[in-house]
Write a sequence for this structure.
């Protein structure tokens, strides 16, 4: 009976590990785009002067017309600025943000010809301390693989 128990445990763990190997896991890869990097550096300096600090930031490889979910913890009453910078050749840039209850709390859309073009940015002060999901997307008819950059800044001084 003891041997049967040990064999059952071995099969159980073997099945779990084989199942984990069989699943397709998406890994977010970092990308580099010199034009975006220059814009990000300028934005960091601009908002630093206004009393903001960078809480989280990430470059990401994106596919045209597909959202990338980014989950961030936000504290009630704190003043945040969310910035998404997309590939300069894309035609549309959108960011949707949802609270913990999956209610859309922000929607911003920019077009290629807009003054601030490939940059979507907005302020947000959450009513509750909870996780929020930010979903940036960009549309590009000529490129499938695109570079994007997202930053979460927090106001620390008036």
């Amino acid at each position: 009976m003891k041997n049967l128990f040990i064999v059952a445990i071995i099969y159980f763990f073997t099945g779990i590990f084989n199942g984990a190997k069989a699943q397709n896991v998406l890994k977010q890869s970092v990308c580099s785009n010199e034009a975006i990097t220059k814009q990000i550096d300028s934005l960091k300096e601009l908002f630093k002067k206004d009393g903001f600090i960078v809480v989280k930031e990430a470059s990401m490889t994106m596919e045209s017309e597909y959202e990338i979910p980014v989950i961030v913890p936000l504290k009630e009453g704190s003043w945040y600025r969310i910035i998404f910078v997309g590939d300069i050749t894309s035609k549309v840039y959108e960011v949707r943000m949802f609270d913990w209850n999956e209610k859309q709390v922000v929607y911003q859309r920019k077009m290629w010809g807009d003054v601030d073009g490939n940059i979507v940015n907005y302020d947000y002060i959450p009513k509750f301390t909870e996780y929020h999901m930010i979903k940036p997307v960009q549309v590009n008819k000529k490129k499938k693989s695109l570079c994007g950059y997202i930053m979460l800044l927090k106001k620390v001084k008036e």
